[in-house]
Fold each of these.
Amino acid sequence: MLLEIDHLSVRYRTRRGTLTAVDDVSLSLARGETVGLVGESGCGKSSLGRALVRLIDSDDGAVRLDGVDIARLDARRLLPWRRRMQMVFQDPLSALDPRKTVRKTLSLPLELHRIGTRADRRQRIDALLEQVGLAAHLADRLPHELSGGQRQRANIARALSIDPDIVVCDEPVSALDVSLQAQVLNLLADLQGQRGMAYLFISHDLAAVGHLADRIAVMYLGQIVEIVPRDKLWRDAAHPYTRLLLESIPSRSVRLSSQSDAAAAELPSPYDLPQGCRFRQRCPHAMPVCAQSDPAQSVLSAGHTVHCHLYGNGAPVLAAGVESAAIVNA
Ligand SMILES: Nc1ncnc2c1ncn2[C@@H]1O[C@H](COP(=O)(O)OP(=O)(O)OP(=O)(O)O)[C@@H](O)[C@H]1O
Ligand SMILES: [Mg+2]
């Protein structure tokens, strides 16, 4: 396996106390695969993405790249691994240094990792600009002299300049006009086809992720509650939270139900996480056991796992009920 995130936790120490943003998360990524990571704002998606590329430190657990745990390597030993993982951020302007031209920005990672001669680097950058669809003359511009779409293309070029194996795309199109979003998504897909890197694609938009990811990981309050292959998402998603997200996709929702009230219920505080299942206060299927213990992982089929007491022994006891309560016209 290219990447294995193994029981990873990320906590922030703030004035109010310790906040758990990522809690005991395990997830893998195969070469060339796209895994979508969805969940509502504040559930810990960016924290997980940043911890795995070592932009922030994790507190517990391991991040194994080709079997080597990089979660606790010091800066010097980490350097060769850094080359293999890059990140594309949501806001392309703040992700680029305002005082550096596009060419300088693209050249820095190559210099840091001592890749090629000056002439090689120049050639490589020209080829990269062409690949991401940026005209050569834009290379001498500063970020604020580019349009939003051009900036995100520059950002993608920066992430790809050192040929990573893994790219964490953190809401890469949500700051762009709707008309540009599809273009940039297509660009990311094309580049993956050409270069074969794996994507962890972070989004709050389950519909978008459902199109482009091979597997979808659903996160709720710091935990991954379900991992489901794309072809099973619409019909077989099992966790009540996943079903709720699917229901709230506008074109699919056909009626207002009691689940909409559940959707509106307040999120528990990440400073003071409830005992048992974290989703239970919003869950239309909550049972007494849900308040007592954290649900263990159940394997429903190959590649499809869920953390939910409804599926206690691997048998989807309430699958029919969940099904009928959810999508009606899928
Ligand atoms: N540097 C930080 N210091 C303290 N708390 C933080 C920090 N960064 C994030 N958090 C908190 O950690 C939790 C997870 O945040 P994170 O940014 O990972 O969520 P997210 O799922 O990416 O949200 P969004 O969809 O809004 O980007 C939130 O409660 C957030 O307030
Ligand atoms: Mg985020």
Amino acid sequence: MFDTTHAHITTWAIGLILFVVALALHKGGNEKGKKIVQMILRVFYLLILITGILLFSKHQSYNPALYGLKFLGGVIVIAMMEMILVRLSKGKGTGLFWGIFIIALIVTFILGIKLPLGWNWLS
Ligand code: HEM
């Protein structure tokens, strides 16, 4: 868990899938289903954070600035998923949050790939 990214990748991949499922349920008018998926997604937020923090705590000294940005980006992605789902339930606008979500997801993904563990498609 400290030296390989498998657990981390598993948690954020499942998290993103649950986010899409919750959006689809909302679109289909199934608010109860969406609420249940959202609860499970919240557990995955914690798992993404725990696996990310374990990797971060062991490896950040290699490049504290980039690891810090990766941490921040990951937290923003999680925060935006939660904001979008909560605001959809309340019938409020989500445009700004979608913008931040997409930018943060791209930055987090590229940083994750660039950093030395696991996938290294950019070096
Ligand atoms: C949904 C949010 C997140 C996404 C999409 C994401 C994505 C990624 C990706 C694509 C990688 C590279 C995997 C690999 O190279 O094998 C990675 C690694 C990593 N992530 Fe995340 N992550 C997220 C959240 C977080 C959070 C919240 C933290 C910190 C608490 C974090 C910390 C890390 C660390 C430290 C690494 C290892 C970087 C390395 O040395 O290669 N991530 N993540």
Amino acid sequence: MTDIVIIGAGLTGLSTAYYLEQMGFFDYQIFEKESEIGGLCRSVNQDGFIFDYTGHLIHVSDENFKQFLAETISFDTLNTLHRKSRIFSNNCYSHYPFQTNLHGLPLPVIADCIEGFIKRKKIKDPQTFYQWVMKHFGSGFAHHFFIPYQQKLFCYDLKKISASWTGRFVPQTNLESIIQGALSEPDDHIGYNALFYYPQKGGINQLIHAIAQKLKNKIKTNYEVEKIDISRNIVHFSHGETVTYNKIINTIPLNNFLKKIKDKSSTNFQTQHHHLKANSVLNINIGINRPHLADYHWCYFPESRYPFYRMGFSHHFAQPMAPHNTSALYTECAYLNKRPCTTDIIKKVKNFFDLNDSEIITVQELHIPQAYVIYNFWREKYLTSLVARLAENSIYSMGRYGSWKYSSMQESVLDGKLIAEKLLHVTVNEAKEMTVSR
Ligand SMILES: Cc1cc2nc3c(=O)[nH]c(=O)nc-3n(C[C@H](O)[C@H](O)[C@H](O)COP(=O)(O)OP(=O)(O)OC[C@H]3O[C@@H](n4cnc5c(N)ncnc54)[C@H](O)[C@@H]3O)c2cc1C
């Protein structure tokens, strides 16, 4: 019997374990289906290049996360970077965010955006992302950036998703900032990701290793949860072993998790899984024998003629990501059903930078089956009660995929802290103070 079973050794699972141990609690076990820990925060070494599962940049806006980083990976091992991100549309580059950086775009595009903003409709309570864009930005911004870009990212009808995820991910603006951004040099200081951190070497996986090194309990890899018997509190693994538990902290995608619940009662979790929708991302990483392809960290591609919605250069985050005089490029293509063609993606990259075949040193294809959660109406209406019903069964579903949300690494860590404190009925600080005063 283990008091707390943590399913998944990604950032959420590991952070939870970290906080439990910080509070002096060790009656838990983490089970991970892969042979390697880290989930989406893994890094792959190939032909001298290091590739992440697309760019994984550390954005810090919370003091607890900051402290967590200081205690685990340490800021001494991180590069501090000021965002250089671009948007490529209308055959030219503009700066991110689009809404405050119209400078350099063709005049008709600028005029469209400003006119649309001035004439935007008063929509009282936007129910969909589409309405939300029309309300806050107007038809020009919608047409030239938001609709094509988000359509490409979510691969879903934008009139069928809510805007509840936008928050810090889509900075709002006003007429003064728009006009200023159209007339003057770009402002790179706006938005949640204007400043970020990245490990000086080894890729984002270094964060995972730093946390794991702090843990006393052993992480059980190659343990794939196959079935959960919630009436008898037993987790079954694919190789036949079982473990009994008091509580489960789930961090695997909620839809997959629901399918594993054996439930004879009326709550019927299994049947809910198909309402939870997420897109997939194909991440093509390319090692290129050319030192300088672009000066930005990453670039957004709203137009449909490019299969990727974003492309970036990880050696701009940390030089050792690519051998000397080469470039480590990544592209991200989202899809719902039909997986994009790798050859087409490479061809587009080659055309874009005018590359020869001989300059391609290596290609690494990484796949994220559940990448961006779709905020469909079902999610908005029923997710909270679904998660609450799981909690009634001593199952706490956390993290980007466990909670079924659009969130970053910071939230994964904060989710870990939150659930550890909730289950131990004490805050991390109180627990530490109690240890000191004992
Ligand atoms: C394309 C993309 C780009 C991103 N970029 C950034 C960024 O730049 N900055 C940022 O802060 N965040 C970024 N994120 C978000 C970040 O990746 C997540 O917030 C975080 O990594 C989620 O960690 P997690 O532990 O919750 O989930 P995961 O990393 O998915 O971990 C879940 C773990 O569960 C394991 N598992 C699955 N099924 C089972 C099973 N049956 N039994 C046992 N184990 C199982 C998996 O193998 C995995 O290790 C990005 C996400 C995506 C998709």
Amino acid sequence: MTVIQWYPGHMNKAKNQIQARLKLVDIVLEIRDARLPQSSRNPLLDQIIGNKPKIIILNKSDLADPKITQQWQAYYHRRQQPIVVIDAQHQAHLPMILTAIQERLATKITKYQASGVKNYTIRAMCLGIPNVGKSTILNKLAGKKIAVTGNRPGVTKNQNWIHTSHYLDVLDTPGVLWPKIDDQEVAIKLALSGAIKDSLLSSLDLANFAWGFWVQYYPQILEARYHLSATELNPNLNLMFEKITATNEAAGDIDQQARQIVQAVRQGSWGRFTLDRVTAND
Ligand SMILES: Nc1nc2c(ncn2[C@@H]2O[C@H](COP(=O)(O)OP(=O)(O)OP(=O)(O)O)[C@@H](O)[C@H]2O)c(=O)[nH]1
Ligand SMILES: [Mg+2]
């Protein structure tokens, strides 16, 4: 088993900066990937933010399995944890974040209003692991492209205040992972979503996991894509390479085939999916 142990310098710096700026903000917006509501949760964040009010934003909902997203929403409602599900590319979803902030900080806002303060400013901090869409969300809230975004982990390197409206300033922060990802399955899920660099895991491990997962949860997608019958589907990818090569230019080159599978999953060619599941005991 590979234990991913790493802590690039800028992440360590980011963690210290979060701690330093926390006292300046009223609320934390924790952005997670809707395809991995649990695995994209940084266990360090709750320790760092303590009892600061927090809203979870499940972003990239356009890529996630809508049925499972609903189950996660119910899961967090049961725990009375405010949660908003959005697709940051969908402008109409953004007001849900503002409503959730107003609801969570209702007491504070009422106090401002009761004491006649008209021009109050709410300060929020946007936190989360890399590549979940933090900067994209803030650009959309601001209505212009202020922060740099990109489909790879580690795009934002420094904290930046973004003035999103007359009453809401949000601090954009670099994505932070925890120092040691010792759960191999979590590491694979993070890599498949694009939150950690490809070079940290082998494409074959990622493809094997994806194949087994799809056979269990989304078999019809594989049957259609690779022209297979239900009885031909085997959860062991190694036994399937030959069968899927007929439709694949990379026939014979297993590493190349594995890379193609990972790419197909990430591009959404294997459909919408959610890798974390709510279990019966949750
Ligand atoms: N499909 C989809 N893509 C999104 C969504 N939100 C962001 N993206 C894309 O995801 C990629 C990462 O977005 P960023 O905003 O740079 O992510 P970040 O969390 O700021 O990343 P770091 O700064 O590296 O921590 C970009 O290619 C965005 O266009 C979404 O809701 N749906
Ligand atoms: Mg960013």
